[in-house]
Every structure is written in structure tokens, then in C-alpha cells.
Amino acid sequence: MTLFLISETLTTGGAEWFSLRLADALMQKGHTVYFFVMRADIVNERIVQKFPHIKIIMLPRWWIKLLANADRVIKKISGRNRLVELANVRLITHYGKKVNPDVLHGHLIEADLVAVRVAQKISCTTVTTVHGDYNIALQQQKRIPEITFLMNRLNHVAVISDLQQQLLSKWFPKQVNKISKVYNGYPYKEAMYGAPDNNTFTFGMIARGIPDKGWEPLITAFKRLQAPQARLLIYGESDYLLQLKAVNDDDRIRFMGFTNEPLRAIAQLHVGMLPSYEDSLPTSVIEYLALQKPVIATNVGEIKNMLHIESRDQYAGTVLDFVNKEALIDPLYEAMYQMMTDTSYYLQAKANCHDAFAKFSMDTCIESYENLYRNEAK
Predict the structure, then answer these.
(1) Is residue 335 a contact partner of residue 313, using CB atoms and an 8 Å limit?
(2) Mean pLDDT, to the nearest integer, of 159-163?
(3) Half-sphere exposure of 186 toward its Cβ, with a 13 Å CA cutoff?
(4) Is the pLDDT of residue 159 over 80?
(5) Which among 327, 229, 235 is positioned nearest to 274, based on CA atoms?
(6) Contact criterion met (CB below 8 Å) for 55 and 20
(7) What does 285-342 look like in DSSP terms, one character per residue?
(8) Closest CA to 184 of 157, 156, 160
(9) Does the structure show a pLDDT above 90 at 38?
(10) 8 closest CA partner among 93, 96, 81
(11) What is the pTM of this model?
(12) Cα–Cα distance between 163 and 242 in angstroms, integer?
């Protein structure tokens, strides 16, 4: 099949990483894949370098920056970024008329808006993977007309959590038949990435450098651990994290910055952390499970199901209820203390990681999308 994958940006978010991994896996299966990025001015080259064989198609950066600046003025009037959208519709339509794609697959709302407008011009099937932005917008009562337009026009909507499926089904009951749950796949193959230092007990977190990932309660809870052998490694980059680093007074906490080798970083951990306030299907949790690192995370989005072993009703870690960030500190401390001191609990959670990760097989994910593409493209 000939497939167009469309992403708004290429930053360190889970949606962007997954869209590239999906393109890579589809190409390995023999499909022809064109990968479009709408915002050439918001591209992390360190991520692109991880996928050198994927040709990234986008308009010149200077042109997009000019259009984006103009859009800031237009948005105050219309509420939409119209120029960037229209320019990308023209670009993708140009390619579409030459190669006649079977499916346009968007990732995130802006990309989906482009996909359905291109499909109007070249008569093509449209699919989206919902990564969380639809839910956030609906919960905040924002972008309702645009999402309604998309739900009416998209041929299929793949969600990655039960919460997404429930919310979209509630808002759009007439579109229930076009909504299905497909877990993001992760192309992990057994490999040696090193091991943690057994003279320490290392907690770690890899996530976007935004407050809602729970960095502050994590750091506060960790500091309560009166254990000189404890370590906390923080992987991420942003001005916010630099501010946290500047006021850090605990030499057991290390701010490691950005990594485009997450598995090598995770290999150095004993426990993976994600006390997020809101999430969908976080890639970092999948990566923790892949390397058999027990997880301490909040019960938001799909995380509880991600860690659950249904066949024996056990978990690959500890799931914490989230009320607010202040109320999260004590449970985080208690969960970390238990991981450090209760060896049998730690080893059982570690043993459960293998079965929990099986849900995220890339082969299973690709098979689901291939079936979805074929069914919708008929």
C-alpha cells in the first residue's frame, strides 16, 4: 500500500516518536510510506537522525515560520492557523496527485485537519491515531467545531486508551463504529544496554520537560528517602527543568538532559518513574517495561492497564491515585521506599514486566493498522 503519514511537529512527544516508529515498521513490511511534517520550524533534528531512511517531506523552514507568524495575527480573528494548514494541504495534495495514496494517516488535530482537506481533493481514505489532544480539548470544551468536523469526515479513529474511547463515544455516539482501540507498538529487540550499578538503587524518569509530568512531587518525595545509595536520574530538556536543576541541593539527583537513546538510559535504572497528572499511553512506560524495570506511576490515562497482567491480576509496578500534586508526595515516597526495601515485592514487579510489555508488540500493532487500512480503503 502507499501511505501518507502526517505529523504536525517532530519533537520529543510520544505522538511524534510513535509516528516515526510506525512509518519505519510499515516500510519494513514493504509498504511505500511518505512522511510529512507540517511545521518545519518545530523539528528536533536529534530525533530525525534516529530514522535516517525515512524521507521527511516539509516546506522550507523560513516559509513556514513566515506563515506561522502571519497565522498568529489571523488566529486572533478566526481562531485558526489557516495559512500553515493551507500550505500543507497544497504540498500533500501535490504529492497525492502524483502517487495516489491508499491512506492518509494523521497524528494530532492539526495534521488530521490537513488530512481530511487533502482527501477532499484526491478522494482518499483518512485515518487518525488519537494521542491525547482530542480528549484534552473535549474535557476543556475547546475546539468542538473542529473535532466534530473531523469525527464526521475521518474514515476511522484509532484510540490508545479506554478513556479516549469512552469520551469520544460519549461525545459522538453516531460515530462509535468508526472508533477502535489500537495500542502503540514498540519495536524492541533483546539487546544488551548495560545494567544498573548495584552499589546504588537508581530511580529515573524520561519525559517531556513540562510541569504536568510530575517532576516536582517526584523530586520532593525522593529527597525524603534517607538512603545515601539512592539515586534519581532525570532525563528531559526544557527551561522548566533547568530551573529545577538550578535550585537542586541534593547531589543524589542528577539532571541528565535530553537523550535520543532512551533504552540505554533506562538500562541504568532499577525503577522507572512517571507521576504524571495527565497522560494517555506514555512511551516511557512502554520502554521501562521493555527493559524489565518496575514502574511507579499515577493512575491516569491507560497506565493502570499498561502495567496490569490480566491473567494473574498482578502489576509490573505500583499505580498511585492522583488527586493533586501535593497529595502525590507521600504515596510517591512510600512506593519508592517499598521498592528499595521489599526485595520480594521488587522482584515480582520486575518479573511481571515481560508479560506487561507483550501488549505493545510492534508486529501486533502493524497487523492491526494493516487490517484497518485495508478495510477502510475498500
Answers:
(1) no
(2) 94
(3) 23
(4) yes
(5) 235
(6) no
(7) HHHHHHTT--EEEES-TTHHHHHEETTTTEESEEEE--S-HHHHHHHHHHHHHHHHH-
(8) 160
(9) yes
(10) 81
(11) 0.89
(12) 33
Multiple choice CATH, 2-185+361-377, 3.30.450.20, 1.10.10.10, 3.40.50.10070, 3.40.50.2000: 3.40.50.2000
For residue 82, with 0-12 CB atoms within 10 Å meaning exposed, 13-18 middle and 19 or more buried, which class applies?
Answer: middle
Q: Is there a contact between 215 and 279 (Cβ–Cβ < 8 Å)?
A: no
Q: Grid cell 508486529 — which residue?
A: 363
For residue 229, what is the DSSP state?
Answer: T
Q: Is the pLDDT of residue 258 over 80?
A: yes
Length of the chain: 378
Q: Report which DSSP code applies to 185.
A: P
- Fold agreement between 2-185+361-377 and 201-359: yes
Residue 362 · residue 25 · CB < 8 Å: yes
Rg (CA), the chain: 21
DSSP lists the bridge partners of residue 105 as 5, 127
- Match 520486575 to its residue by C-alpha cell: 350
Q: Give the CATH fold of the 201-359 domain.
A: Rossmann fold (3.40.50)
Any idea where the domains of the chain sit in the sequence? 2-185+361-377, 201-359
Q: For 143, phi and psi rounded to 5 degrees?
A: 55, 30
With a pLDDT cut of 70, the percent of the chain lying above it is 98
* pLDDT above 70: residue 199: yes
Identity of the amino acid at 105: H
